[in-house]
């Protein structure tokens, strides 16, 4: 069965670029947008889930499905509103199709846009946005009649009171709205952090992370409305914990990172962000000048990943008009050391301050037990399997007198040769 047969013709007329790859079998990967006919990869492989089983069975979407993915189009008249929602297994902010596809998906709506293009001033939010969120925060937010964990959509377009309620912030700033909701915002807050939280919730739910409720882009600032984690950062109590309590936390971290290492990248040999974009790490911030501002990538294989790192260093050398002898050194030796590593789901900034711990009140034993939640996923992506150890080891240069520097290797895999080479190039290329 060709999935294109499922799409109402009225929707196709509204979205001329919306196509599905011919001959997509049930449960196969789905590509939409430009180049879909030849696209080989999709950001998320469609598989049965409890919330959208029928959606995945058809590898596209179900018309008037109980998930409320597409509805209210039976008596469509030009100019009428279309209430359209698609799950993030199909598309989020131009990511479906992976690096080989350029995706644009929007459905015209009478009072704004529904889709995943993130237009300036647009807000998207989870269907069934929590009712305890003050509606003075997002007056344009409309909660659908049914709560569906797999549906996200834009809610209108235009101005939002977020920037009026919250002061301008350059660096990432947190503002607690109530006991359950926090807003992370600022010029340096990126949408790919929100997309990482969505990916974790949908594809690796065993990894504890904050739940994302909504995301808003306005001017140069991004706003992530997310679950507030009730707990304290690990660095605030690690030194006061008993050995058995430290062991309990390390065991929990082992379980989390085992799950992350087992997660499969949806594209073979792909290195990039979780939404199929560039690598969100400062070593890959382009040094080639204003015409190439932004992060480099994604990369289609390990050799391209290493070459991108070396080329970025060479660009820095040339920009500063320095001799290129060390660039030649990296070109010769970096590929020899950084080889044979697969794409691995990576947090990218594991420090104690990014590990929230919550005391488990249901523990019946004499000793205390803690639950953990990993926060600050802005550096997450598909990196080589040595990358987590490299990033985690950076603060260790300053804290080798604490037992944490030794305990880290119990849940994060360390590659000494790769780590040493990466610290060498970080000293030359890093900020």
From TrEMBL:
<feature type="signal peptide">
    <location>
        <begin position="1"/>
        <end position="21"/>
    </location>
</feature>
<keyword id="KW-0732">Signal</keyword>
<dbReference type="InterPro" id="IPR051678">
    <property type="entry name" value="AGP_Transferase"/>
</dbReference>
<dbReference type="Pfam" id="PF01636">
    <property type="entry name" value="APH"/>
</dbReference>
<feature type="domain" description="Aminoglycoside phosphotransferase">
    <location>
        <begin position="193"/>
        <end position="382"/>
    </location>
</feature>
<dbReference type="InterPro" id="IPR011009">
    <property type="entry name" value="Kinase-like_dom_sf"/>
</dbReference>
<protein>
    <recommendedName>
        <fullName>Aminoglycoside phosphotransferase domain-containing protein</fullName>
    </recommendedName>
</protein>
<dbReference type="InterPro" id="IPR002575">
    <property type="entry name" value="Aminoglycoside_PTrfase"/>
</dbReference>
């Amino acid at each position: 069965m060709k999935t294109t047969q499922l799409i109402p013709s009225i929707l196709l007329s509204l979205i001329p670029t919306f196509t599905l790859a011919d001959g997509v079998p049930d449960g196969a990967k789905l590509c939409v947008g430009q180049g879909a006919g030849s696209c080989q990869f999709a950001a998320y492989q469609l598989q049965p889930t409890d919330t959208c089983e029928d959606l995945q069975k058809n590898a596209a979407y179900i018309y008037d499905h109980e998930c409320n993915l597409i509805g209210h189009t039976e008596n469509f008249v030009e100019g009428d509103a279309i209430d359209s929602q698609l799950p993030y297994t199909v598309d989020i902010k131009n990511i479906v199709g992976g690096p080989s596809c350029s995706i644009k998906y929007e459905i015209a709506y009478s009072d704004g846009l529904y889709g995943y293009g993130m237009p300036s001033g647009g807000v998207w939010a989870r269907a069934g946005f929590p009712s305890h969120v003050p509606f003075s925060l997002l007056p344009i937010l409309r909660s659908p009649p049914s709560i569906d964990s797999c549906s996200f959509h834009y809610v209108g377009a235009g101005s939002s009171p977020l920037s009026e309620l919250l002061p301008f912030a350059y660096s990432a700033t947190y503002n607690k709205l109530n006991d359950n909701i926090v807003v992370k915002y600022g010029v340096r807050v990126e949408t790919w952090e929100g997309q990482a939280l969505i990916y974790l919730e949908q594809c690796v739910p065993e990894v504890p992370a904050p739940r994302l409720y909504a995301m808003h882009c306005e001017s140069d600032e991004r706003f992530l409305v997310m679950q507030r984690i009730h707990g304290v950062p690990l660095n605030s109590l690690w030194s006061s914990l008993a050995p058995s309590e430290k062991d309990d936390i390390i065991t929990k971290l082992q379980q989390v990172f085992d799950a992350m290492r087992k997660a499969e990248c949806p594209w073979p040999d792909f290195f990039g962000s979780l939404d199929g974009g560039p690598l969100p790490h400062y070593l890959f911030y382009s040094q080639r000048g204003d015409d190439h501002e932004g992060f480099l990538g994604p990369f289609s294989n390990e050799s391209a990943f290493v070459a991108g790192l070396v080329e970025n260093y060479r660009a820095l050398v040339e920009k500063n008009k320095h001799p290129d002898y060390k660039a030649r050194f990296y070109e010769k030796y970096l590929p020899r050391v950084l080889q044979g590593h697969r794409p691995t789901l990576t947090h990218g900034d594991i420090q104690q301050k990014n590990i929230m711990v919550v005391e488990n009140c249901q523990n019946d034993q004499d000793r205390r037990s803690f639950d953990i939640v990993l926060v600050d996923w802005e550096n997450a992506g598909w990196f080589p399997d040595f990358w987590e150890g490299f990033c985690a080891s950076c603060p260790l240069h300053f804290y080798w007198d604490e037992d944490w520097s030794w305990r880290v290797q119990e849940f994060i895999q360390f590659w000494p040769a790769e780590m040493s080479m990466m610290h060498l190039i970080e000293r030359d290329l890093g900020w």
